[in-house]
Amino acid sequence: MQTAHSSYSHRSIDTLGVLALQWFYQFFNLGIIMSNDSNHTDNGYTPPKVWTWNPGNGGEWASINRPTAGARHEQKLPKGEHPFQLYSLATPNGQKVTIMLEELLALGHNQAEYDAHLIKIGDGDQFGSDFVDINPNSKIPAILDYSDGLAEKPQRIFESGAILLYLSEKFDALLPKEHSTRTEAMSWLFWQMGSAPYIGGGFGHFYSYAPYPMEYPIDRFTMEAKRQLDVLDKHLANNEYMAGKEYSIADIAIWPWYGNLVLGNAYDAVEFLEAASYKNLLRWAKQIESREAVQRGRVVNRTWGEDHEQLHERHSAADIDQKLKDN
Ligand SMILES: N[C@@H](CCC(=O)N[C@@H](CS)C(=O)NCC(=O)O)C(=O)O
């Protein structure tokens, strides 16, 4: 092993050869830097003093990504008859809200009736003027609450975690009442909000969407993704649900990301991540998946997959009934 004080004479001929090559390539700016491990090369990119936007460098999402916020075009949003108007897409963040609304309806909270309108993020609908008024961050899901005297001035809610919390407080449901268990549910809810970007924007992006496979980011985010799967697996070894014995918004937040991942519904990464080894997490993922409200919620605003899984818009329970009957 080399130490910081090693002299060149202690280095192998191979190492000296690599150093000479590095110098040669750097000197002639040939764009290849080699380390002692010849698997490690990069494209010689050196960040400029000030970053400038290069449209087209965003992989699969290149056409919609820009470094600025705000509305890009005028776009009216449709409005249905129900108290809640949801503007979304069935990504994991979108599924959290439709599963929650379906759970509330299953519990008999008729005031949770909703219209689910489709926001096509690949087409840039999230940058339309009406949508940006509901979510200045231009991301689905976003919801308007027109119920209980809010008809004139609906309450906007954005950020999926905030929407779950708003709905559970409004209907006094799916958040444990006992203080310590409730606190546990909140800890896991916020854990999910902070952790999932490493799965979606990190692991998922570099494993599935980046223009070509890159070892460094895939290694970095796979390490983190597996660490998070292990966090959940260890917790679920001793807990039926995330907050203990009670199903809650913590499960509803976590399942669409981590349940879908280990069940093979996201990023096609079951083998790569050795998902079968997270036995407690898989047990929980299947248990949540078998809930009727989860099966109903996951198809809403979905525009990909099998036909029987795709319900682009939802305006009544019958829309979902019909879709699931098609299966
Ligand atoms: N922290 C937000 C994240 C929402 C989010 O990232 N939404 C994605 C789809 S899963 C989106 O709308 N992306 C469109 C874009 O980035 O332009 C939440 O949980 O609501």
TrEMBL record:
Q: Does the keyword Transferase apply?
A: yes
Q: Which residues form the GST N-terminal domain?
A: 85-175
List the Pfam families hit by this protein, alphabetically.
Answer: GST_C_2 (PF13410), GST_N_2 (PF13409)
Please list the residue ranges annotated as the GST C-terminal domain: 181-320
Q: Which UniProt keywords apply?
A: Transferase
InterPro entries registered for this protein in UniProt:
Glutathione-S-Trfase_C-like, Glutathione-S-Trfase_C_sf, Glutathione_S-Trfase, Glutathione_S-Trfase_N, Thioredoxin-like_sf
Which molecular-function annotations from GO does this UniProt entry contain? transferase activity
| Name under which the protein is recorded | Glutathione S-transferase
Q: What species is given as this protein's source? A: Kangiella geojedonensis
Organism placement in taxonomy: Bacteria, Pseudomonadati, Pseudomonadota, Gammaproteobacteria, Kangiellales
